[in-house]
Amino acid sequence: MVLAEQFRDVMSGVCTPVSVVTALDGPRPHGTTVSAFASLSMDPPMVLVSLDRGSDLLAVVRRGGRFGLNVLESGQAELAKQFARKGKTKFDGVSWQLDDDLPRLAGASGWVACRVEQFIEGGDHVVALGLVLAADSVPLAPLTYHARTFGTHARTDGAS
Ligand SMILES: Cc1cc2nc3c(=O)[nH]c(=O)nc-3n(C[C@H](O)[C@H](O)[C@H](O)COP(=O)(O)O)c2cc1C
Questions:
Q1: CB count, 10 Å around CB of 34?
Q2: How far is the CA of 32 from the centre of ligand 1 (A)?
Q3: pLDDT tens column, 62-78
């Protein structure tokens, strides 16, 4: 087995949250499903998102310098699939509103509005470091991605 394949297999075993990163392309909302998102700093509050160099959303974020992070809840797997497609129809039928001048999806469990502080090249991806401008959440079960399937978190400690 070649290294790239072995690496892919390791990463498919890593359970990740699923989010949709959004930005405004002129008046039009754009969004992309992302698992490579993490909290970076608390003071100041910052996050990081890793986007493929070929991502159309990356080009939009480079132009506007801002992005929104919609952390999906367990019932939003279809939404995650819709935003993992290419093209300009990803928002068709999707309920959203502008928040901090960024597209915010209805029903997501978490919302973070960011201004890009820095782009860092990382192989075939680009990491955007975002300074948090606003954050909001509701306590819903998370949508997770593991072994190329969608799921959610299950408690194993102290549960009776
Ligand atoms: C569960 C899941 C996680 C993904 N995570 C990422 C990611 O972290 N970074 C990324 O660039 N693409 C990721 N993708 C792929 C993008 O969503 C996909 O390539 C999308 O079509 C890019 O759209 P865009 O060109 O409009 O930005 C993921 C897809 C899925 C289904």
A1: 24
A2: 6
A3: 999 999 999 999 999 99
